[in-house]
């Protein structure tokens, strides 16, 4: 399920660490609507797998050293999940918080409206995606001191992305789909490296267009759930070309 939510700001300046701000809003929306659901996602189980990804559209924005200036004081928050129950909960929680100002970092965010987007049907054995939020290729070996970020312009980056993609699919579909998952392949059609501020650090990421070869149900899952690392933090949201 895919949605877009119009957010209204009280002033035009937001921090460059924008995804952190939206995650704070999301947690507030969930907790205020259903505390038990919020705890099931963020407290009851450490590092629990979540089904969603998101991206932000900020019209006419300007980037400064530490801030983003949005003259229109509007942000379009795109949200997508492959889980229908999670999608319905998101929609209801956002509707319940519509019109309520959420104060954060010398600013406030008000949900103005929410729309459900029509989804495309995938019936072929390949899909071309463009990124709505940058893809992160991360190699993580146990702790933060052994974490590396790669570009999809690098061969090592492509290798790690493919490994992570297959791990993501295996985690979601299980061993019974192993043969289909092993057949998954991809090609980078174009790529631009960007650095995104995330929780105080600059993360190397990729604004790109990729072609993925896989069974239609896998392609549909990636379309709805996103790809790459840190999907739940506002990276890796995809749209069909």
Can you give a write-up of this model?
With 241 residues, the chain is an alpha+beta fold. The protein has 2 domains: 116 residues, Alpha-Beta Plaits (2-Layer Sandwich); 115 residues, Alpha-Beta Plaits (2-Layer Sandwich), CATH 3.30.70.1900. The chain has 6 helices and 14 strands. It is globular, with a radius of gyration of 18 Å. The mean pLDDT is 95.
Radius of gyration: 18 Å
Name the assembly state: single chain
CATH architecture annotation of the largest domain: 2-Layer Sandwich
C-alpha termini separation? 18 Å
Order of helices and strands: EEHHEEEEHEEEEEHHEEHE
Shape: globular
Furnish the topology, listing elements before pairings.
Layout: E1 2-9, E2 13-15, H1 18-33, H2 35-42, E3 52-57, E4 62-63, E5 67-69, E6 74-81, H3 84-96, E7 101-104, E8 107-117, E9 126-131, E10 137-140, E11 147-150, H4 155-173, H5 178-182, E12 185-198, E13 201-213, H6 216-225, E14 238-240
Antiparallel strand pairs: 1-6, 1-8, 2-5, 3-6, 4-5, 7-8, 9-13, 9-14, 10-11, 12-13
Helix pairs in contact: 1-2, 1-3
Please give a handful of descriptors for the protein shown.
single chain, 241 residues, alpha+beta, Alpha-Beta Plaits, 2 domains, four-stranded antiparallel beta sheet, 6 helices, 37% strand
Question: In brief, what are we looking at here?
Answer:
The protein has six helices and 14 strands.
């Amino acid at each position: 399920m895919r949605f877009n939510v119009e957010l209204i700001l009280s002033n035009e300046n937001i921090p460059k660490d924008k995804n952190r701000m939206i995650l704070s809003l999301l947690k507030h929306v969930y907790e205020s609507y259903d505390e038990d659901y919020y705890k099931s996602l963020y407290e009851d189980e450490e590092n629990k797998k979540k089904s969603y990804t998101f991206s932000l559209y900020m019209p006419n924005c300007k980037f400064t050293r530490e801030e983003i200036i949005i003259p229109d004081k509007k942000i379009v928050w795109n949200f997508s999940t492959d889980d229908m129950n999670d999608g319905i909960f998101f929609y209801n929680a956002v509707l319940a918080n519509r019109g309520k100002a959420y104060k954060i970092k010398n600013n406030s965010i008000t949900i103005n409206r929410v729309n459900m987007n029509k989804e495309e049907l995938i019936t072929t054995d390949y899909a071309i995606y463009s990124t709505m939020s940058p893809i992160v290729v991360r190699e993580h070996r146990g702790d933060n001191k052994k974490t590396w970020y790669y570009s999809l312009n690098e061969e090592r980056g492509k290798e790690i992305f493919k490994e992570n993609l297959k791990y993501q699919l295996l985690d979601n579909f299980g061993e019974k789909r192993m043969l289909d998952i092993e057949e998954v392949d991809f090609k980078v059609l174009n790529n631009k490296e960007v650095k995104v501020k995330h929780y105080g650090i600059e993360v190397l990421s990729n604004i790109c267009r990729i072609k993925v070869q896989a069974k239609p149900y896998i392609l549909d899952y990636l379309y709805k759930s996103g790809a790459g690392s840190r999907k739940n933090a506002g990276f890796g949201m995809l749209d069909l070309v």
